[in-house]
Design goal:
Number of helices: 20
Distance between the termini: 35 Å
Strand content: 15-25%
Oligomer: single chain
Low-confidence stretches: 538-543
Structural class: alpha/beta
CATH class of the largest domain: Alpha Beta
Largest sheet: 7 strands, mixed
CATH superfamily of the largest domain: Aldolase class I
């Protein structure tokens, strides 16, 4: 049995990290004896020829894709292409989008055979190992049965996270993400006990928070620290949900003397001086809080369960602990008025004065959320079901007194302020007045954009090989020749190309081979740490 898992295209502007969910699925399949390959279309450019080549070479029996709402269109196009090339291949999708509109999706796209609901590790293994005529016995599945669409019994969430194998990161092109300066992520728990009406998290992974053993969490973090990413994101829905677990993980990190920068998500009513102080000691650098709004009334409408006083108190605690507090807001929530928008903008400005990094998104009413299911009751007008527009950067909802154009106006002004800041840095750098640290936000962004374009345009693959004229060519000579070739093919400034490629080589993300008289540069892609975690997963252990 062979399974190909697909990570659909996702914009680099959304700061993607290596696909943790797919790595968990791949590990579960490998543990069950299934051969797995991952096609990551975030860092590899999709083409029909690429897909056909992989299908022909790997010969998968099943192709599965994950998708969030904004990537669904990309994911389903891959599924359609698979069926067009090889109709016999079983096609499956999972993730939060299709979990909450499974029947609708299967009716609309006959190329799709099944949808995996919620947490997928156990379901996808059962699906891969079960003949289609017995799928009715696989829990957590919606599938096509002739002209009918059937839903099986729900599958409870994985009770003991310690039984899950470590994510199969050896199948991911980690070095491409590292070359782009993206973070890498891991989790120490699953589940969210809160009821925010704009979020599918609780419905997706359950309201009961389940915890991994701090020992296993620290073991995984130690492995990630050896991969030399600039940052690890603890992607738990709520890392600080249980202070005892949070402190135990931090203690285990310090006990092992793991030196790596990491961040986490938290709620303002779940942090304390002790918890934040211990997180700082263990290597945490920043904590992200979902504030959502500066309006106490809207906080109640969306069932956030926090107060603005709790927000400012949590910010002060972060400042005392030496952690960077980050706040995120959502504009266009139910009850939004010109006055509540003013309150949110003013509250954000006050937080900025307290040292908070903050940003805005515009409400995207995803399938499965209460805000979508009760939109009319909540006074929301949903303007489109074009899923590609659900990226939360432009308005797709209106309230009775706030138009989409007004929400877009705020988002565009926010973007202009950021662009103006970058332009000031550029001018200062060009005059030789900016220090390296002051210029870093612009320099880093330029590097990310260039490296991403080189990856997605296959520039290294198409222009990074040539016949040597000198048998004793050094790496410096080979790199200089590559810079010239990239400059000629892309038209980008040579100094920018040189800086980016030198950094990629020094980071171990770009290398070259000498084959007879040929030089061939290549992205390194796959990484392995000095002490690889077992592919089959850890032994279970108590918290």
């Amino acid at each position: 049995m062979r399974v190909l898992l697909v990570n659909p295209f996702y914009p680099i502007s959304e700061t993607p990290s290596p696909p943790l969910g797919l790595a968990f699925l791949a590990a579960a399949l490998e543990q069950a004896g299934v051969e797995v390959k991952i096609l990551d279309l975030v860092v590899f450019p999709y083409s029909p020829d690429l897909l056909e080549s992989i299908l022909n070479d790997f010969s998968p029996d099943l192709v599965g894709s994950t998708a969030v709402t904004m990537t669904f269109d990309h994911a389903v196009k891959v599924i359609q292409a698979v069926k067009a090339l090889h109709p016999e291949i079983v096609t499956v999708m999972g993730g939060p989008h299709v979990t909450f509109c499974a029947e609708e999706t299967l009716r609309a796209f006959p190329e799709l055979d099944a949808v995996v609901l919620g947490e997928g590790e156990e379901t996808v293994v059962d699906l891969a190992l079960t003949p289609k005529n017995r799928w009715a016995g696989v829990q957590g599945l919606v599938f096509r049965d002739g002209s009918a669409i059937r839903r099986t019994d729900p599958r409870p969430p994985v009770a003991d996270l310690n039984t899950l194998p470590f994510p199969a990161r050896h199948l991911l092109p980690l070095a491409r993400y590292r070359a782009l300066g993206m973070p890498i992520s891991m989790t120490t728990s699953r589940g969210c006990p809160f009821h925010c009406i704009f979020c599918v998290g609780r419905k997706m992974v359950g309201g009961k928070v389940r915890y991994r053993s701090p020992v296993l969490a620290a073991e995984e973090l130690a492995y990630l620290s050896a991969l030399n990413f600039h940052q690890v994101n603890l992607a738990d829905d709520l890392f600080t949900a249980n202070p005892r677990h949070c402190l135990a993980v931090c203690d285990e990190i310090m006990k092992r003397k793991i030196k790596v920068k990491w961040t986490s998500f938290a709620r303002v009513d779940t942090v304390s001086r002790e918890v934040l102080g211990r997180m700082k000691e263990a290597g945490c650098t920043a904590v992200s809080f979902g504030i959502e709004t500066g309006s106490p009334e809207i906080l109640k409408i969306i069932k956030k369960g926090i107060t603005l006083d709790q927000v400012t108190a949590a910010v002060r605690l972060c400042n005392e602990a030496g952690l960077l507090p980050h706040a995120s807001f959502i504009l266009g929530l139910p009850g939004e008025t010109p006055d509540t928008l003013r309150q949110t903008l003013e509250f954000g400005a006050r937080l900025k004065d307290m040292g908070v990094s903050y940003g805005f998104h515009l409400l995207a009413p995803f399938p499965g959320t209460e805000v979508r299911e009760k939109a009319e009751q909540l006074g929301l007008s949903i303007l489109t079901n074009d899923w590609s527009q659900y990226h939360a950067n432009r308005a797709i909802v209106e309230t009775p007194t706030v138009t989409a154009s007004r929400l877009d106006e705020i988002a565009l002004a926010w973007q202009k302020d950021f662009d103006d800041l970058l332009e000031k840095i550029r001018q200062s750098r060009d005059r030789g007045e900016a220090t390296e640290e002051e210029a870093w936000p612009l320099t880093n962004l330029e590097n990310i954009v260039l490296v991403y374009d080189l990856m997605m345009e296959n520039t290294i693959e198409n222009h990074g090989a040539w016949t040597r004229e000198n048998e004793s060519v050094s790496e410096t000579d080979c790199l200089a020749a590559l810079v010239r070739r990239v400059e000629k093919s892309s038209g980008r400034p040579r100094d920018l190309i040189a800086r980016a490629l030198i950094r990629a080589v020094q980071g171990g993300n770009l290398g070259y081979d000498l084959d007879g008289g040929r030089v061939r540069w290549r992205w390194v892609d796959f990484l392995s740490g000095p002490n690889d975690l077992p592919v089959g997963g850890p032994a279970a252990g108590p918290e």
